[in-house]
What does this fold into?
Amino acid sequence: MGATLNVADQKRAYTLTDRGTFLSLRRRLNLVILFQGDASLRNVYHVYAVNAARHPRVKRAEARAFIEFLVSAPIQQAIAAFKRDEYGESLFFPDAVP
It folds into this structure.
């Protein structure tokens, strides 16, 4: 994504990018955000536990613990705060429902 942003900057072109990459590179780019916030632009991440009935060797308890860790309030807050001080805004917008 960084290479795409660099080419768009050099060509004075438009591109779609993720917020984190843009924010991390914006000091050396002449690009500006033209459109953001629309639900159609959401870049959602998911976490799933593998079906233990279909995959008997899966570590079901460990998978469940990891999922619960990721969706917990403290980790959701940490995701929201990640590098906010450095870039002046959130790179990610957590929306997990425990």
In short: The radius of gyration is 18 Å. The chain is about 45% helix and 0% strand. Helices lie at 2-11, 19-25, 60-71, 73-81, 84-87.
